[in-house]
Design brief:
The chain is α/β, with parallel strands linked by helices and 511 residues long. Helices cover 43% and strands 13% of the residues. The strands form three sheets. The chain has a six-stranded mixed beta sheet, with helices on both faces.
Length: 511
C-alpha cells in the first residue's frame, strides 16, 4: 500500500485514553460482498462496475470465482465443447461436491481461498492479528445456495453483504442466445435448472436470492443507471446520510408487519401505499378476530391463534393429514395390500399438489389483511394503489388484489405454491404490461439492512454546514471487529489496571 493510502487510513484510527477507542480501533475495514443472480442476469458486468467504484475509494478489490473453485476441486478439464457444455458441467460438479460433502462446501472453499490470499500477501501466520487499516473488498462470484449465504454470514457477520441481481427471464434468455451463442432450448433449460433443482444438494438460486441485502435490476433499460445505483449502495455502506426510497420504506413497513404474525407456517407482511408513498394499510398473516382485524396477545376476546389452542397444531397440516388418511383408506378398500397402498400414498404425497393446498389455513393472508384493513377505514381506497409484500402472493390473494384495483405489486420471496399467473394471466403480468397488474421483484435496500444504513451516524453538520463524507477516508458501517470479545475484555482490563497502577482510581470525600 502506498504512503498516501496509509496516511488516509490513519485518519480512521481514534486516539484517546478511552477504553472504547481501544476496542473501536480494532474494527475491520475489510468487506465481503457476495453476488447472487440467475444465468444471464449480468452478474459479471455488475461486479465490474462495483470493482471500479471501490477501486476509486482506496480499496484493493479481489474477486473469488466459485466456478474456478469447482474446476480446481474436481479436476474438471477446462476444455468444453461450448458455453452450454461448460455451464452444464459446472452445475453437475457443483452438485456432486455438495452431495458428497456439505451444502455450503463452495463457501468453505471460498473462505479457504480468501484466507490463503490474505496470509500470503501479508506474510501472516494463522494466529497473527489482522491488519486493521487494510481496505480490501472481497467479491464472491457467485452464490447459488442459501447454505452458502448462511456460512458467509456466520463467519463474516456484518462485514458480509449479499447483492441480488435481478433481470427479466426473456432478457436473460436473449443474452445467453446472443452473447454466449447458446441455442434457445438449451438456454431455457439451463435457466430452469439454475433457478431451483428438486435436490437438497442442487442449485437453489431463488432461495439464496431472497436473502440479499441489496437488490438491483439489471435489465437492458436499466443498464445505464447501474453505476449510480451502486454508488448509492456504497455511500450507504459508509454511513453517508441518504433517505430511503418510497419502495424501500414501504417494504420495510411490510417486513415489520410480518413480525406481528404468530402463524406456525411462515411470517408474511404487506403494506399498501399511494403515489405519494403514504401508508394506506398494512397486514400480516394470522387468524381473524371477531373484533375485526387479527388476533393479538392483548385481544380482549382472548388469543385463539393456532399456537395457543388446545391442539397447538397447524390447521393446514392437520387437514392435509386427514386427506392422506382418507386416500389411504380408499386404497386399502381396493385390496391393494398394505405395502402397495403405502407406496402409492407416498407417490401421491410427493408428486401431487395436495401438499401445496392452502385452503385449510385459519390465517388471513397478509395481502388480504391489508386490503380488508383499508376497507375498514373511512374514505380510503385501494384503487391505483401499490402493494409491497414480503412473499409473492398466492393465487387466492392474487385474484383479490386484482379486484381491489391495486395497480402493481412488489415482492421479495418467491412462493412456489402460487398459481397466480396460471389462473390470472389475463389480468396480471411479470413486469410492466399495458392493461395488466404488474407483479415485480423488489429493488433497493432489503428490510433487514434498513435500520443499519439509514440510521444517523455521527454529526450530519459541522458549524451548521453539511458534513461531507470522504469515502476514501472513513470506515464502513460494519460493526465487525478483527478480534473476539474475550480479547477485548483483556484489553479493557489492561487499560483499567493502568489507571489502578497510576493510583487514578481513588475516591476522596473532599474532592
Amino acid at each position: 500500500m502506498g504512503d498516501a493510502a496509509e496516511k488516509k487510513n490513519q485518519k480512521t484510527v481514534r486516539k484517546s485514553d478511552s477504553a472504547y477507542d481501544v476496542v473501536i480501533n480494532r474494527r475491520t475495514q475489510e468487506l465481503v460482498i457476495g453476488f447472487c443472480g440467475a444465468l444471464g442476469s449480468g452478474v459479471s458486468s455488475a461486479i465490474s462496475v462495483l470493482e471500479t467504484i471501490f477501486s476509486g475509494i482506496n480499496y484493493n478489490v479481489k474477486i473469488i470465482k466459485m466456478s474456478d473453485l469447482i474446476l480446481r476441486s474436481t479436476h474438471l478439464e477446462n476444455n468444453f465443447a461450448d458455453e452450454s457444455d461448460r455451464i452444464t458441467k459446472l452445475q453437475d460438479c457443483g452438485n456432486k461436491l455438495r452431495q458428497h460433502t456439505s451444502k455450503d462446501i463452495l463457501a468453505q472453499l471460498a473462505i479457504e481461498e480468501l484466507k490463503a490470499i490474505r496470509m500470503s500477501e501479508h506474510k501472516l501466520e494463522p494466529k497473527d492479528p489482522l491488519p486493521v487499516e487494510e481496505r480490501v473488498l472481497w467479491i464472491i462470484d457467485s452464490i447459488k445456495h442459501p447454505a452458502e449465504v448462511e456460512l458467509f454470514r456466520a463467519v463474516y457477520g456484518s462485514m458480509f453483504y449479499l447483492v441480488g441481481v435481478l433481470c427479466p427471464e426473456e432478457t436473460r434468455i436473449h443474452r445467453l442466445v446472443k452473447s454466449k451463442e447458446i441455442n434457445q432450448a438449451s438456454a431455457v433449460a439451463l435457466i430452469e435448472r439454475d433457478k431451483s433443482e428438486d435436490l437438497a444438494y442442487g442449485q437453489k438460486l431463488l432461495k439464496a436470492l431472497q436473502h440479499a441485502d441489496f437488490f438491483i435490476n439489471y435489465s437492458d433499460y436499466n443498464r445505464p443507471n447501474l453505476s449510480s445505483i451502486f454508488e448509492r449502495f456504497i455511500r450507504l455502506l459508509f454511513g453517508v446520510n441518504i433517505s430511503p426510497t418510497k419502495g424501500e420504506f414501504a417494504m420495510h413497513v411490510a417486513w415489520s408487519s410480518s413480525l406481528r404474525s404468530a402463524c406456525l407456517s411462515r411470517q408474511v407482511g404487506a403494506a399498501i401505499i399511494n403515489d405519494a408513498g403514504e401508508i394506506i394499510a398494512t397486514g400480516c398473516n394470522d387468524v381473524p378476530s371477531p373484533n375485526g382485524g387479527l388476533y393479538n396477545s392483548q385481544d380482549r376476546c382472548g388469543d385463539h391463534r393456532c399456537y395457543n389452542t388446545h391442539e397447538k397444531c397447524c390447521s393446514s397440516d392437520k387437514y392435509k393429514k386427514t386427506l392422506y388418511t382418507d386416500i389411504k383408506k380408499v386404497l386399502d378398500d381396493h385390496n391393494l395390500g398394505s405395502e402397495d397402498s403405502d407406496q402409492i400414498l407416498s407417490e401421491i404425497k410427493r408428486n401431487t399438489r395436495i401438499k401445496d393446498l392452502i385452503e385449510f389455513s385459519r390465517a388471513v393472508h397478509a395481502e388480504m389483511d391489508a386490503i380488508v384493513a383499508a376497507s375498514r377505514k373511512v374514505s380510503c381506497s385501494t384503487k391505483n394503489a401499490i402493494m409491497y409484500v414480503t412473499t409473492f402472493p398466492c393465487h387466492n390473494c392474487a385474484k383479490h388484489i386484482v379486484a381491489s384495483g391495486i395497480r402493481s405489486v412488489y415482492y421479495i420471496e418467491p412462493y412456489e405454491k402460487s398459481l397466480a399467473f396460471d389462473l390470472h394471466d389475463d389480468s396480471i403480468s411479470i413486469g410492466e404490461s399495458e392493461g395488466k397488474i404488474a407483479f415485480l421483484p423488489f429493488e433497493g435496500v432489503a428490510p433487514k439492512l434498513y435500520a443499519k444504513v439509514f440510521m444517523q451516524r455521527g454529526d450530519r453538520k459541522i458549524d451548521g454546514i453539511v458534513n461531507e463524507v470522504n469515502l476514501s477516508e472513513v470506515p464502513p458501517v460494519s460493526d465487525k471487529f478483527v478480534d473476539g470479545y474475550a480479547y477485548y475484555e483483556v484489553r479493557v482490563i489492561d487499560k483499567l489496571n493502568k489507571f489502578k497502577k497510576d493510583d487514578k482510581i481513588v475516591y476522596k470525600e473532599d474532592e
